[in-house]
From TrEMBL:
This is SDR family oxidoreductase. The keyword GTP-binding does not apply. Pfam families: adh_short_C2 (PF13561). NCBIfam families: PRK07856.1 (NF005893). Transmembrane segments: none annotated. The lineage of its organism: Bacteria, Bacillati, Actinomycetota, Actinomycetes, Propionibacteriales. Residues 10-179 form the Ketoreductase domain.
Length: 258
């Protein structure tokens, strides 16, 4: 028996939804039949089939206005995907308190503020709603060079579990811990094709994720197929990171097995 992933009739707001992983999520939701609104800090060309609004998600008042505008246009808000986030490389000992504050603000406080605004709407709807937080594997492993980012994502995973309890049964809360994903910035970030290939050899599935694959997980979590999934942290990382010692192990027995 076929089990359809159907988001028809639902209104979804995807923060940072016009590029990278956010674009993959937007496209997956469109394919599942959802009405999608995206937002970013500045105006952008809408993804075909969507509406785009400018909003700095770190500004609580702006987020309230964003959600109000979505509800005014569509009469409801069924799904929020907190995707906007990220951080530049900076060693913790050298980064300023202001830098760390901005990183934590974008990756932890902004999702909380957006979730609060969405929850106020979803609690009044007979069908409630679903909130998906896009987190990172950096939440559960060391994140050198992006320490504040990793700490913020760990906080986001914890926040997800707590809000799943506070806002139940009307609103479901889940997180996706995303691993390495191939986007428009990947080659520049990792030094071109050779660098990417070297990294992909360390991933059990042999490659980085495609943005739409993260989108499929988000669409599942937002759908009725996940109607009893809340407070979950779904790892989307291609099998994770094998222990480093395995790459250094050169014992005769290991060589014979190879």
């Amino acid at each position: 028996m076929a089990i359809p992933l159907d988001l028809g009739g639902r209104v979804a707001l995807v923060t940072g939804g016009t590029k990278g992983i956010g674009l993959g999520i937007t496209q997956a939701f469109l394919a599942a039949g959802a009405t999608v609104v995206t937002c970013s800090r500045s105006d952008a060309d809408p993804v075909p089939g969507t509406t785009h609004l400018a909003c700095d998600v770190r500004d609580a008042d702006a987020v309230d206005r964003l959600v109000a505008e979505v509800v005014a246009a569509h009469r409801r808000l069924d799904v929020l995907v907190n995707n906007a986030g990220g951080a530049p490389y900076a060693l913790a000992a050298e980064a300023s308190p202001r830098f760390h504050d901005k990183v934590v603000g974008l990756n932890l406080m902004a999702p909380l503020v957006a979730a609060q605004a969405a929850n106020r709407v979803m609690q009044t709807q007979e069908t409630g709603g679903s909130i998906v937080n896009v987190s990172s594997v950096s939440a559960t492993r060391p994140s050198p060079g992006t320490a504040a980012y990793g700490a913020a994502k760990a906080g986001l995973d914890s926040l997800t579990r707590s809000l799943a309890v506070e806002w139940a049964p009307r609103v479901r809360m889940n997180a996706i811990d995303v691993g390495l994903c191939r986007t428009e910035n990947t080659d520049d970030h990792y030094g071109g094709d050779d660098g990417v290939a070297a990294i992909e050899r360390t991933i059990p599935l042999g490659r980085m994720a495609r943005p739409e694959e993260v989108g499929h997980v988000a669409a599942f979590l937002a759908s009725d197929l996940a109607s009893y999934v809340s407070g979950a942290r779904i790892e989307c990382h291609g099998g994770g990171e094998p222990p480093v010692f395995l790459s250094a192990l050169t014992s005769p027995s290991t060589q014979e097995q190879n």
